[in-house]
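Practice problem: predict the structure.
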Amino acid sequence: MPLGPTRRLILLLILGAGIVSVLYISSFRPPIASRPAGVVNPAQAPHDIGSATLTGPAIAPKLGNETAKAELGNAAWKLLHTTFARFPDNPTLDEQTALRSYIHLFQRLYPCGECAQHFSKILEKFPPQVSSRSAAAAWGCHVHNEVNQRLHKDIFDCSKIGDFYDCGCADTEEDEDSGKKVSKVSSHEKPDMPADRVEKLSGDNGREVDLVGILNGEKPLELEKEGWTNGG
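Answer:
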């Protein structure tokens, strides 16, 4: 039975209303940005690094060049010890986790594969200590000596680790400005000698100095012995 004009009009109105509704609802959806192939959606990316990632096998292949291996080792230890020296005295839990993860990932990604494998055994025996700056520095020196012992190298005195790997970094602007002032005085000119000291060396109570003879090598420079001062 053919549809009448009224029924056909009602069906067209219903169909048109459905299309308008779909278009209206879709207008509220945010546009999907195009991403290059292989890029992970941030919402799907893992937030925590699993233990398997931290303690997995070494990634780099074997490094056969002994010269490059030695240079790499020196640079790596300097980086690690300086990192420990700049670590906070009272780190937060997040900062402790960051340093611990950094050490494990540093071991896995180390460009010398066989070196990374050896260091992984040391990490298993001596886990990273990240509770404080001093703990991290002492741990770093200890594991460094473990490597030195295996390579038949000298054992480093860990009591001097702070001075040996001092990067010269000022903790504050005030320290930096103070360091610049000291450096400026020591590098350009010496402080003026006190008047009484000048009088003692070159005045009537002192002795005459033949500068021309000393510079020409005709006379030796004789230094008088002085007693101990308060400075040592």
